[in-house]
Design brief:
2 domains; single chain; rod-shaped; transmembrane; 322 residues; Alpha-Beta Plaits
Length: 322
């Protein structure tokens, strides 16, 4: 509203001043008028009024918007005198120098400075939006309790990444991990302590995998780790996770809890879809549970998509068995 009143007042003053100049100065003869310049100035003034209208419609209170407004008013003053200069000889000459040339130059400089400031703020806003986008993407792709990746990220994006890999040149192995006797723990100590145990296991997994590996909370107390490397590399990573989790301290009301986990491994193969390999890793995990838990089982050869053999990984000698 302030700018509308300012523009209205400015136009009234400029109109009155222009009428005064027309009445007090010598007109130029018709044959000396450059009508092309005259029409060009009329068009320029119309454009300036349109830009002023846009500036008012935006109703922005930023310093850049105010500078644009001032710069446009200065241009309006300069080009109005340019228009008058096409039909009359403005006297004295300093009026043309100040209200025509200087006004136009000042208007251009002010608008350029406003654009410079706006571009800097625009870059900052773009950077902020990118950071917010990354933050939102991270929130949508991670499990809020464990801060591991979730099933949504696995299904929507990660599988597509894997499909673009040449698994012969860049082998990957799946590790399905499940906390042993978790239901009994939950029933005994309550769901709050159960959540703490899941978080404890997630931290262990994150600490023991490498930066090139991915850890997902697959569901409940079950985790999926995609290990970059063949079955030999995955075996070492799985052994490390298994041992560190078993040896780590976890207590409830000062009572140390004995805990373990079971792991099923399956190396990804170009001949199998991801879901098939995931199913075989899950079957290897089931076999680990079936063999008494607290162990690592590899899914070996298969026929008709069903595993025909399992291999139990030898654990460290100082790791007790359940």
């Amino acid at each position: 509203m302030v700018r509308v009143r300012a523009l209205f007042a400015f136009v009234i003053v400029l109109t009155g001043w222009s009428i005064h100049l027309l009445n007090t100065n010598q007109p130029i003869e018709n044959n000396a008028i450059n009508f092309f310049d005259l029409s060009s100035e009329v068009f320029t003034i119309i454009v300036i009024f349109m830009m002023l209208f846009v500036n008012l419609r935006l109703a922005s209170t930023t310093s850049e918007s105010s500078m644009f407004f001032i710069g446009l008013l200065s241009l309006l003053c300069g080009h109005t005198h340019d228009l008058l200069d096409e039909v009359i000889n403005i006297q004295p000459l300093f009026i043309s120098l100040i209200l025509e040339n200087a006004a136009n130059n000042v208007g251009v400089l002010v608008i350029m400075f406003a654009l410079f400031k706006w571009s800097g703020r625009y870059k900052q806003q773009i950077k902020l939006l990118q950071e917010q986008k990354l933050a939102l993407t991270s929130v949508s792709n991670t499990d809020p309790m464990t801060h591991l990746y979730n099933r949504r990220f696995l299904n929507d994006e990660f599988k597509t990444r894997l499909q673009s890999l040449n698994l012969e040149q860049s082998p990957h192995t799946l590790a399905m991990i499940d906390l042993d006797r978790f239901k009994h723990f939950n029933d005994t100590y309550g769901h709050l302590e159960g959540d703490k145990l899941i978080q404890h296991a997630a931290r262990t997994i994150l600490n023991e995998i490498r930066e090139v590996d991915y850890a997902f909370r697959f569901g409940g107390e079950e985790f999926l780790v995609v290990i970059k490397g063949n079955i030999t590399t995955a075996r070492r990573v799985a052994q490390r996770i298994h041992k560190v989790y078993y040896d780590s301290l976890f207590a409830v009301d000062g009572l140390k809890i004995e805990k373990s986990l079971s792991i099923g491994l399956k190396q990804l193969d170009d001949s199998f879809a991801f879901e098939q390999a995931l199913n075989q890793a899950d079957l290897a995990l089931y076999q680990a549970k079936k063999q008494g838990r607290n162990c690592i089982i590899e899914s070996s050869t298969c026929t008709n998509n069903e595993p025909t053999s399992f291999i139990q990984v030898t654990l460290n000698k100082d790791l007790a068995t359940s």
